[in-house]
Every structure is written in structure tokens, then in C-alpha cells.
Design goal:
With 307 residues, this protein is an alpha/beta fold. It folds into two domains: 81 residues; 216 residues, Rossmann fold (3-Layer(aba) Sandwich). Helix 1 packs antiparallel against helix 2 and helix 4 packs across helix 6.
Length: 307
């Protein structure tokens, strides 16, 4: 798929709000597509390029002049694209993970692969509202999730005795520039999601999670060994697989399944085709426990359909 098609497909299948129109306009702009196409392949991702323009002070929409601004200021945009990663850290995914976590005997020793700022490492620090059920959890961040099927919703947050994350470039939640980068990855118009991110970052900054810089394959075995004395070891990841080659995905799965841990994956259906679960017309993740699909879920945690 060439670069224009990547942006055109992003606009049709993924983008919402102003990004839908913007992605189509970028796809039809040969000058901007040529600049993006000259980037390393891994750096041409729409989310990364769009966020980099905003991070450098550019507009967020087609109507506000995104394309001419991006071309005029491409040197700065390119510098940011090459220096940063798409590290969308969506705390709302904890609402998808919680019913699966509830099936594992605690206390838990939680390890997240591809942790970014570690916001999904703190599911015990959020307040949850599933449908019309009684809310539970300490807050101050509230995660609301609509459910289908009969998910095993707990009545309390899990006990997490130990936690750590792994990332090639961990995000320092105490650094204002790092927090602003995460905000730029939130799409324009998604004010509630942006506000939730800010609140979750504040929770994390008050008690920063342990984030280990390194490659998952090299770092995970040592962390699992360290975690084993603290509780049931759970390795989780969410939207990690798109950033791995097919071969690296297979090696990662082989590694995790060979470590004797509980494994929670929360990934887009195209990344896990062997599950054979159609998502229908909506963009969805499959949330699985130890390789067994448990739910179709919203990528941002706003709904889940228990399987």
C-alpha cells in the first residue's frame, strides 16, 4: 500500500471528526504525500505525522490550514516525527481489561509490554461505571463502559501488589513536554478523551509507575522473575502488535507463552486473524486471556461485547 492509500484508508476506516476530512485531503496532496513518503516507513503513520504537526504548533484541521502549514514547516515536523513514537496511552482501555483481570486470582504482579506512560498499569486507581451498575473504584478518573453479553464485572478493583512496564521510549509523566505529546496524540474534538488523559496523567504523576527502558524480548524475562515473588504474574499489552513485524509478533507470543504467566492481550482484530472473530462494521479489539478470546472491545474502552 503506497503512502496516499495509507492515509486514504485511515480516513475511511479509522479516523473520526476533523481527521476524516484531513486524511482524505492529505492523500490527494502530492506535495505533502511526497514529504511523508520520504520518511522511514515506520514513521509514515498518520497518527504520528498528524500529532507532530500539532506538537510543533500547527493547526489540527483542514479548514485551519493544516496542509500548507505542514509543508512550510516540514523541517520541524520531520524532526519531531523522527524523534518520537505513536504512544497513545488510553486509560479507558482498563475498562476492557478489568473483567479479564477479575478472572485471575490475586494479588497481581502486573507487567505491561509497550507501557508508554504506564496509564494502563494502574487499573486499581480508577473508578468504573458499567452500564447502570453501581460505580466502584477510588477515582478521581471515571471510566464508563457499555456492555453486551454477560461479562463478569467485579464489584471492586483488583489488588495489585507489584507493577512495572516496558517500553522502548518510556514517557515521563512528570515532564510537561512528554505529557503534551500524549495530548497531541488525542484526535481533535475528542475533548472528553483529552480530559480523561490529563486526569490519568495527574494520578500517575502523583505516584509514577516503574517503567523500564528496553526491548520487550530482552527485558521481559527478568521482570517476570522479579515479579514472581509478589503475586500472580500477569503480562498485558494493548495496541502493541501494530508496531511489531509479523515475525516479531510470533516471537513475542512464543516468549510470553513460555514464561508461565497469565497473559492478557488487547489488540485490533486484523493483528490477530487466527482468532477468526469478525468485528462487523466497527473498529474493535479482541481482549483475550492466555490466548483465548474473551471479548470484542472498543479501542478506547467505551464498550465491550463478552463472547
Amino acid at each position: 500500500m503506497d503512502t496516499a492509500d495509507v492515509y486514504r484508508t485511515f480516513g475511511v476506516r479509522e479516523a473520526r471528526g476533523p481527521y476524516r476530512e484531513l486524511a482524505a485531503a492529505i492523500a490527494d496532496d502530492p506535495g505533502l504525500i511526497a514529504l511523508i513518503g520520504a520518511l522511514p516507513e515506520a514513521k509514515r503513520q498518520p497518527n504520528l505525522v498528524l500529532a507532530a504537526v500539532r506538537f510543533e504548533g500547527g493547526p489540527a484541521t483542514e479548514d485551519d490550514g493544516f496542509r500548507p502549514w505542514a509543508k512550510e514547516n516540514w523541517a520541524a515536523v520531520e524532526r519531531t516525527v523522527l524523534a518520537r513514537r505513536t504512544q497513545t496511552n488510553e486509560a479507558g482501555r482498563c475498562a476492557s481489561l478489568l473483567p479479564v483481570l477479575a478472572q485471575i486470582e490475586g494479588p497481581l504482579a502486573l507487567i505491561e509490554a509497550g507501557a508508554s506512560a504506564g496509564l494502563c498499569l494502574q487499573p486499581d486507581r480508577y473508578r468504573y461505571v458499567y452500564d447502570a451498575r453501581e460505580p466502584f473504584g477510588p477515582g478521581p478518573v471515571t471510566l464508563a463502559c457499555a456492555t453486551e453479553g454477560d461479562p463478569p464485572i467485579p464489584d471492586a478493583v483488583p489488588e495489585i501488589a507489584w507493577r512495572a512496564g516496558i517500553d522502548l521510549a518510556p514517557v515521563d509523566v512528570t515532564d510537561p513536554a512528554e505529557r503534551r505529546w500524549l495530548e497531541c496524540l488525542v484526535w481533535p474534538g475528542e475533548d472528553a478523551r483529552r480530559d480523561r488523559l490529563r486526569a490519568a496523567l495527574a494520578v500517575a504523576a502523583a505516584d509514577p509507575p516503574r517503567l523500564v527502558r528496553g526491548d520487550v524480548a530482552e527485558t521481559l524475562p527478568g521482570l517476570v522473575e522479579e515479579a514472581a515473588g509478589h503475586g500472580t504474574v500477569v503480562v498485558c499489552h494493548s495496541a502493541l502488535l501494530p508496531y511489531l513485524t509479523p515475525g516479531a509478533r510470533d516471537r513475542f507470543v512464543d516468549l510470553v507463552t513460555g514464561l508461565g504467566v497469565r497473559w492478557i492481550s488487547n489488540e485490533g482484530t486484523p493483528r490477530l486473524p487466527h482468532f477468526g472473530i469478525p468485528a462487523g462494521d466497527r473498529l474493535a479489539f479482541v481482549t483475550a486471556l492466555d490466548g483465548v478470546p474473551k471479548a470484542l472491545t472498543d479501542p478506547h474502552g467505551s464498550w465491550l461485547r463478552w463472547l
